[in-house]
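Q: Could you write out the predicted structure for this multi-component system? I'm mainly interested in how the pieces pack against one another.
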Amino acid sequence: MTHADKVHPEEIKNVEVLTLRLRKLKKEWEEAEPQVYVDDTLLFTESWKETEGLPVDIRWAKAFEKRLLECPLLIRNDEIIVGSLTKFIRGNGTLCAMKPHEILEMCESGRFARKTSDTESTKITPEDLKALKEDAEYWVEHMPRVSTVNAALEYDMGPGVFDLLFDRGCVFEGRGVRYKMDRGLFQNFSAYGGGVAQVSAQCIDNGLNHVIDLCKKERERMMAEGDDEHSHGSAQFLRKYWLLEACIISCEAFIKFAKRHADLAREMAEKESRPGRKAELIRIAEACERVPAEPPRNFFEAVQCVRLYHLVCWKESSDRPEVPVGRLDQLLYPYYKKDKEAGMVTPQDAAELLGALWLKIRECENLVTIPRSQRAAPGSLLPNITLCGVDKDGNDLTNEISWLVLEAMAQIKLSEPAIYIRYNPDMDEEFILHALRCNVRFGGGNPAFLNDKLGTERYLERGVPIEDASNWNASGCLGYHLDRMEHVGGGHNINQLKVLELALNNGFDPRTQKQLGPKTGDPREFNGIEQIMEAYYRQLEYFVPILHKVKMLSLCTEITDGPMSGLRCAMQYEDCIPSGLTPKEGGARYPEGRTSWLGSRGMVDLADTLAAIKKIVFDDKKVTMAEMLEACSKNWEGSESLHQLCLNAPKYGNDDDYVDSIYDELSTHVPEIMQRWIDPITGKKPMLFIGAAAGHVVIGQSIGALPNGRTAGSPTNDAACSVMPGMDVNGPTAAINSATKKAYAKEFVGYAMNMKFSKNVLNTDEKLKKMAWLIKAFMARQGWHIQFNIHSREELLDAQENPERHKNLLVRVGGYSAYFIDLPPELQNEIVQRSMHDRF
Amino acid sequence: MEGIVYNIQRYSIDDGPGVRTTVFLKGCPLSCLWCSNPESQNPLPEVTWRYTSCKKCGICVETCPLELIKLDEDGIHIDRKSCDRCGKCVEACVQEALQMSGKRMTVEEVYDVVKRDADYYKVSGGGLTCSGGELLMQADFVTELFKRCRGDEIHTCADTSGFGTKEAMEKVLVYTDLVYYDLKYIDSAEHKKNCGQSNELILSNLVLVVEKGIPMVIRVPLIPGYNDSDENLTAIAKTVAELDDGIPVNILPYHRYGENKYRMIDRKYQLEDVESPTEEELDKAKKIIESYGLKCEISK
């Protein structure tokens, strides 16, 4: 890591990220009609047909190579950073080999979407539609392992297992898991793709020629001397041989892909009459001739190289391209510092280049199959950027690029990439204020702050040395991992609230009318909350081993499906080359993250439900357990006062020990149960996370009314340790206190705190400072992830319509604060108006 | 020791330095026409009616043992003179539209809430603010509460109108780290007319705070047409500057956010036609204050 020079905020505050050129490019993209892009999937299939009979690793690598060598290229007018996913200004990629059934459904329905909220289908020409349909049909027929997991599960666990556990929600299929509505007990079986590659700082810094060289040497060495890892003549020995070949093919294809861009740029330069633009095109050509084969020579080449890595990783990941950009400020700073000292680059130059990179990253879009998009954050493709952090010696690494990236975010105002700041208490307060100001200018929710110390400590606890442990970055929706040393795998979730619902019904599922869990006793005969909790724990104990087993059996697709291409393997060259294993198969330096995540959903609802039962049934004895369950089964119909009583019962997020003590017990006992069995894949204790993002809407659909006051089918709480919307009436410190009464974030990864504020709480530096202190205290209390949203106009309008859902919406004005819903309509209107116009 | 508290607001961001918890005490000897917390004036608990939540179901009418609640198309009306604050209607209201404003709490009960945010005070230099109502009406309670804070090194701020006896003020000041002191008028007759009391005590207590050397911020609510004349602002600036020109002055622009609260306690709002001061008016007021060498800020 390069030591950061002192930052001069005034230099940064005046930069113009969105220059005239970028404004034009942005507008053009925003106004372009989205098109379905089919060339890559057709090339993939063509290659697949050509390579019949070859080892699977080679087939994947060749298919990847063909796409990179033959896909159409696009350099848009006046672009300074190049590398487009498709030939369209706004194209949506796809790969039929990943999800043929769903693509076929799209072709047949004629509706193509990037997200569920799209009102119009993405456009496709009749010729492309025909070709895509044929392609999908080919893969429906040629995906050889369809139902492998299904068959294994049925064989091992008996017939009807899907009906019971997945509520018909989840159909394993070949290399993918197909979702219908994943609303059963278990969700998120990420068998497909099995994680993504990420932009790798070390690969950029060393150049891919270095990696190719290592692969070739290793192959020569193993042929000459044999292999320490695998005995001669074993299947693994042969596998390693082919895998190394796949790595070489993929890396060389990437280099050629860059060279194709160089050729195109030169060709365009020839024809270009404007001398300025000509020079730019030559600069692009020179960069793409150099990177990624060799290390970048300057800041511009480094930015161009990041773009190419992101694009190629995206293509390689195909179906689920959640490619993290990584620690962008750390990666770029050494190049920036060198150029700046040499007088070759100014903050303004850097700002424009970052803006250009930003637009290229945001441009990448894939067709999203509907069920997935219902779970994921709408349209989110998670190209996370991580900033700051401390090095192994404890030095704060915030630098000028960290400042500039935030400035870019605030000026560009596009939903992605999401920014994560690794927060440490020694950070410059001015930087935090800059981040918060950018948050307000952006419109809220970005950046998020992560606890630097906690992130590093989690790795240290797993025995990772400090040099590696301190190099983590944010990935996925709420995860994090180490660049080139860990595989970003998927997780497996248990719907904890559903488990409780089963416990409240003696193992019987009211929705499917089936006995899903063991008989843990009729709660009508229970005398105290302890018995209810015991029944819940016994249900959980029954399901966790089943979850592990499902996971293990689903591996038959994970492993046999090949490495996607050699690229991911090559990018983790220090470990995957000697071992001859892909990261997915355990070749990564720290393999336990790859499939052993166990997620819990609905923990907050769980605590609230137990607290309401304790309070209303056992402590206050307002109703009997039988009456409570009866009211729930009728979805509160005819029990409106009991429903209100339940809504008014103590709720998590208010610093109320009555419910927080229950949450606390759950947070101790649930991990103990979930980790009682070792993970069958890694042989280690599974790591735990709190499933969140947008899964709360779907899992809520399988659950009936419960004593926390929820109505049947409504969403559960939205993120890890956030409070149920409208339920935190004691303010942000109380909400944080509930979430950090103990160091829960040490047990669960993904422990995110989402807070909402009105704009007038954030309209002066003085008030932002108070927000900065909130972050500081949150982190000191061992919180993990916090972010601040701003009440949108829509929410304020909703609060006018449905005041009961917005009891906590505070409006503050000089020395006075009131709940929004208490204000007379005309004043409410005034605030709604202002919410649109307030500028920081 | 017990006090009557009508609200405890955590993460208060306008009531002093750092992150604070503000304890609002019930009861105020003044009755300023523009008061944005009218429920704070009566020293006893009282039932408030959140009309936005009320479904007009009439349960409260049936519940009231003294039959003091009436329901008509405007909503409910409570005969507040006869109400004995039994709270049965509040308990019966499932919509939580009826609430009891004001609760007897011991120093320990209040302090239990205050100390929950000690971590936030520590990183921000924040602490407890007692506001009102008028805290001097509950001077013993405030003194005890502040004393508990002093023991745990929690910063204390007294947000006062200054209307109280000298003894009460002296008592509170012993454990006070910062005073937020309201000044509305220098002219006593005007003060009496618009705030219900003359201001001699306020002005003499002001001198007392300065003499004790406790850091202070003067807060001037700026009410167009009432106390925003050049003459009054000049008098305020002059008074403060003569005492100590190092005392900062904050202007609190008038807003009507309290208006609805009058309806919640069956009272009529007096200033219906007054608008918030314009930027120009605020700027002008600021300039007058500053012309006496005082630091002046406008609260946003």
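A: Regarding packing and overall arrangement: The two ends of chain B are 36 Å apart (CA to CA).
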